[in-house]
Write a structure and sequence with these properties.
The complex is a heterodimer of chains A (410) and B (234). Chain A contains 14 helices and ten strands. Chain A is α+β, with helices and mostly antiparallel strands. In chain A, helix 3 packs antiparallel against helix 11, helix 11 packs parallel to helix 14 and helix 13 runs antiparallel to helix 14. The longest helix of chain A is centred in the last third of the chain and has 34 residues. Chain A is elongated. With 234 residues, chain B is an alpha/beta fold. Chain B has a domain of 161 residues: Rossmann fold (3-Layer(aba) Sandwich), CATH 3.40.50.300. In chain B, the strands form two sheets. Chain B has a six-stranded mixed sheet, sandwiched between helices. Classes of the chains: A alpha+beta (410), B alpha/beta (234). The interface between A and B is medium-sized, with 27 and 33 residues.
């Protein structure tokens, strides 16, 4: 069986019609994975607008992580059924003389990887990355172009000629650390102000980098001071996002009714003091679930039509080949295995290539994080459905082809 | 020695697309090692007769015995295996698989024989192609071969499973003179090795070209055997 099966791989490798279907399946799979991931991403403006609640400290109030913890606990109790992501935007001034500040995001729950984090950062509008990328790993930083006008940073010694890739070495109290600039953003008036404190230069860093800075390198750091109790770390925002794609929705993990949380918070305002809701949920906004469901349905229909067509065409285009194989002594089962190998190969390669392509493009262009659910779903529609169709259609069609047809002119 | 192929009062009637009687009361005996030419105009039933002999078509009436086995007793699967083991088929239009190389085409019949390793099948295919003068063309695709070369590949494919009987349907109809002569020489050689050869053709000239080896000339007309001429006995 396996010998015939693997021999069957030769056909799709050498025929244009198979290549055409391979490309079709590849595009379907890639489109779905990308589209679903986009919908699944909290960076989608529509989704953030529709389904996020932003809380900021009341005017003139500085809030430390410790102060915010109680508030977060209360919010979490109210939102745990709905919110998938909740995070704090943290800020600390590194060098008040030069106005250098450090900014990061502190995930409270629902932010399982750094991939999410970069999308959360991009939500801090109107900051726009103009070169490079967001920091993804420990020791990486995003710096604003303003830094070029400052000749020498007291702590960072970055100079005016820095470029992406420049490494800054900081040593203090026997501890040293390298920070590498991986991207730069455009400074806008809105970048400063409340979010940035008094700083003119903001370094966006990962939570791990932020923590290490605070504990070891901050100018005001005292021995034994941790991130949680440092009084020079301020919470600038709390963001609650009820996102999630179709899968999460069907599981009942998330809801679009973020307004339920908002109403609940408003009804008990004392519980969220000293924060104030600066942005509430948008009722009636188009949901990710609907978009994801439409996308999944469309792609499913395409896969069904494509698979059916493919199975019919395989037999049609290989009619004479099937008749010949049967005439020279292959039985219908052998021929079926041989033809199914083509579908297995085409669908399998299309699926694998689409996943590789999407990951590659995602890494290169900083697309939304890839949803695992979209990959599983894509596997089902691009690989399983064509095979099932092949198993249903091909054996019946093979039996209709008489080996005697091999004697006729093709 | 008993006859290798026995047809007794064989009829073949096609119901679709229009009722048509392709063979009428055909009876024929062919002994092992014979070289038989089936002659007749287009539509006389030559190809149908070959199909019935090879078990590709089941007769509407009558009996077909091959090596004393009644083909009617065999299931479709058993018939396919029986055909693979006993018959080598050479088609008029070569019927090579276009996406496979000459070597791969020759290997095809044996791929379903589980007891043979792929290495062994490959070696056997290479040896056959070398014997047929195609050593330089192993990795050529059919479209890269001349008509004569394609037919030699098809013959190699037909004999790779060491069949006792080789049937050819107009095997030289689309070949130039030199290629046709080369292909007929191969059939001669295969016959000398003890294989039974049955060739169906419309070309009367083949009687003359193969007169040194032919044992029987069967003339068909309108699905009936008009005449059987025995040239030599085996």
């Amino acid at each position: 069986m396996s010998r015939i099966f693997f021999f069957g791989f030769r056909y799709p490798l050498r025929r244009k019609v198979s290549l055409a279907f391979l490309i079709l399946f590849l595009l379907l799979s890639s489109f779905f994975i990308y589209n679903y991931s986009l919908l699944d991403s909290i960076n989608t403006d529509k989704l953030v607008d529709a389904k996020s609640i932003v809380l900021e400290p009341r005017e003139g109030v500085d809030i430390s992580i410790k102060d915010a913890t109680d508030v977060l606990g209360r919010i979490w109790i109210k939102s745990q059924l709905y919110a998938e992501v909740m995070y704090l935007v943290l800020y600390s001034e590194l060098n008040p003389d030069l106005g250098v500040g450090l900014i990061s995001v502190w995930p409270v729950f629902g932010t399982p990887s750094q991939t999410y984090w970069k999308w959360i950062l991009s939500e801090i509008k109107p900051t726009t990355v103009i070169a490079g990328r967001f920091p993804e790993r420990f020791g990486e930083a995003l710096v604003n172009e303003e830094a070029k006008t400052i000749a020498n940073w007291k702590d960072l010694s970055i100079g005016i000629n820095w470029e992406i890739g420049t490494k800054i070495n900081i040593t203090r109290g026997g501890q040293s650390m390298n920070i590498q600039i991986v991207g730069s953003y455009l400074t806008t008036p809105a970048t400063f102000g409340k979010l940035a404190g008094n700083s003119k230069v903001l370094l966006y860093v990962t939570p791990d980098t932020f923590k290490k800075y605070i504990e070891f390198f901050h100018p005001n750091a005292q021995p034994g001071v941790t991130l949680e109790n440092a009084d020079y770390v301020y919470v600038r925002r709390i963001v609650i996002i009820a996102k999630g794609g179709l899968y999460e929705y069907l599981q009942g993990i998330v809801t679009n009714e973020l307004s339920e949380i908002e109403n609940s918070l408003k009804a008990s305002e004392n519980e969220i003091l000293p924060f104030v809701i600066v942005k509430g949920a948008t009722p009636g906004a188009k949901t990710a679930y609907v978009q994801a469901a439409v996308s999944a349905t469309v792609i499913f229909l395409f896969a069904i039509i494509g698979s059916a067509l493919y199975s019919f065409l395989i037999v049609k285009f290989r009619h004479m080949e099937i008749a010949t194989l049967r005439a020279i002594g292959w039985n219908a089962k052998d021929v079926k295995t041989y033809l199914l190998a083509e579908i297995f190969f085409v669908a399998g390669v299309a699926f694998i290539l689409s996943v590789i392509a999407i990951y590659a493009i995602s890494a290169f262009y900083a697309l939304p994080p890839i949803s695992y659910f979209s990959i599983i779903y894509s596997f089902i529609i691009i690989f399983i459905i064509p095979l099932v169709f092949g198993l249903i259609v091909i054996p019946r069609r093979i039996l209709r082809i008489s080996p005697a047809e091999a004697f006729r002119k093709a | 020695m008993g006859a290798q192929i026995v047809l007794k009062n064989v009829w073949k009637i096609f119901e679709k697309p229009k009722k048509f009687t392709a063979l009428q009361d055909v009876s024929l005996e062919i002994n092992p090692g014979e070289f038989v030419l089936i002659l007749g105009p287009t539509g006389s039933g030559k190809t149908t007769l070959l199909n019935v002999i090879a078990g590709i078509e089941r007769p509407s009436r009558g009996t077909v015995l091959i090596e004393n086995r009644n083909l009617a007793d065999l299931s479709e699967e058993a018939l396919a295996e029986f055909r693979r083991r006993n018959f080598g088929i050479v088609f008029q239009f070569f019927n090579l698989l276009p996406h496979l190389t000459a070597l791969e085409n020759v290997m095809v019949p044996l791929l379903v024989e589980k007891e043979l390793s792929i290495k062994r099948i490959r070696q056997k295919a290479i040896k056959l192609l070398e014997e047929l003068g195609l050593a330089e063309k192993l990795y050529h695709y059919p479209r890269e071969l001349s008509g004569g070369e394609q037919q030699r590949v098809a013959i190699a494919r037909a004999i790779i499973s060491d069949p006792k009987i080789i049937i050819g349907d107009e095997p030289i109809a689309h070949l130039d003179e030199e290629s046709a002569r080369m292909v007929l020489d191969i059939f001669r050689r295969l016959n000398r090795e003890g294989r039974t050869i049955i060739i169906a053709t419309t070309h009367e000239a083949l009687v003359r070209m193969l007169q040194d080896v032919l044992t029987k000339v069967v003339r068909l007309r309108n699905g009936r055997i008009a005449n059987i001429r025995v040239l030599r006995r085996r």
